[in-house]
From TrEMBL:
PANTHER family: HTH-TYPE TRANSCRIPTIONAL REGULATOR RUTR (PTHR30055), TRANSCRIPTIONAL REGULATOR TETR FAMILY (PTHR30055:SF224). The keyword Transcription applies. InterPro entries: DNA-bd_HTH_TetR-type_CS, Homeodomain-like_sf, HTH-type_TetR-like_transc_reg, HTH_TetR, Tet_transcr_reg_TetR-rel_C_sf, TetR_C_Proteobacteria. Residues 9-69 form the HTH tetR-type domain. GO terms for molecular function: DNA-binding transcription factor activity; transcription cis-regulatory region binding. PROSITE patterns: HTH_TETR_1, HTH_TETR_2. Keywords: DNA-binding, Repressor, Transcription, Transcription regulation. Pfam families: TetR_C_7 (PF14246), TetR_N (PF00440). It comes from the Bacteria. This is TetR family transcriptional regulator. Residues 32-51 bind DNA.
């Protein structure tokens, strides 16, 4: 990567971070490209060189939110490992993502704007839902292997992951609570996994 390319990438990231801050503080409609340029310490022309419109810029923010979620490595179902070990790995990764400050900031911006623009909210919810399908696929594979009881995989996935969000996402997003302490993160993950397996795992 050339020096010019590195500078261009840094400017693009500065614009994105400035936009996140401005959208979060002032909302989508009240935020102008001029404000974003000033906050990013770049010219308005530079902003438009990277993003053709404010909608395009917001779409890039949604893309970052998606990338944060997609960065969580999916665990492929394995017949040779205990179910608890596999679920713990998946849910620990999920918990780390939920507690990441960057992810939370992006989620706040996307959800707040989604309230004002249902179409934007639909895109975000749809893309995030697609990401969570990996857990559903894992559950279905475990069912086919005879290790989990019959249940709609999507329902069981939401039930499991929803317990993590109940403690480590929605209180922080909606009520401004502090991130869940690490010890509590461990407790929530272990409890959620054990409750899930206690109900759905096939006794052998």
């Amino acid at each position: 990567m050339t020096i010019n390319q590195k500078l261009t990438d840094r400017k693009r990231e500065a614009i994105l971070q400035a936009a996140i801050a401005e959208f979060h503080s002032n909302g989508f409609e009240a935020t102008s490209m001029d404000k974003i340029a000033a906050s990013a310490a770049v010219s308005k022309r530079t902003v438009y060189n990277h993003f053709s419109s404010k909608d395009d810029l917001f779409a890039a923010i949604l893309g970052q939110l998606w990338d944060c979620s997609a960065a969580v490595t999916e665990t492929v179902y394995r017949t040779d490992l205990p179910l608890r070990d596999q679920l713990m790995e998946m849910m620990q990764q999920k918990m780390r993502m939920l507690c990441d400050p960057s992810f939370m900031n992006l989620a706040r911006v996307a959800i707040v704007e989604g309230i004002h623009s249902p179409e934007r909210a639909k895109e975000m919810i749809s893309r995030m839902g697609q990401r969570e399908e990996g857990v559903s696929v894992w559950i279905q594979a475990a069912q086919q292997d005879g290790r989990l009881k019959p249940v709609a995989p999507e329902f069981a996935s939401h039930l499991l992951q929803g317990q993590l969000k109940l403690f480590a996402f929605w209180p922080q997003l909606a009520m401004g609570q502090a991130p869940l302490p690490e010890a509590e993160q461990v407790t929530v993950v272990q409890t959620a996994v054990d409750m899930f397996l206690g109900y759905y795992q096939v006794a052998r």
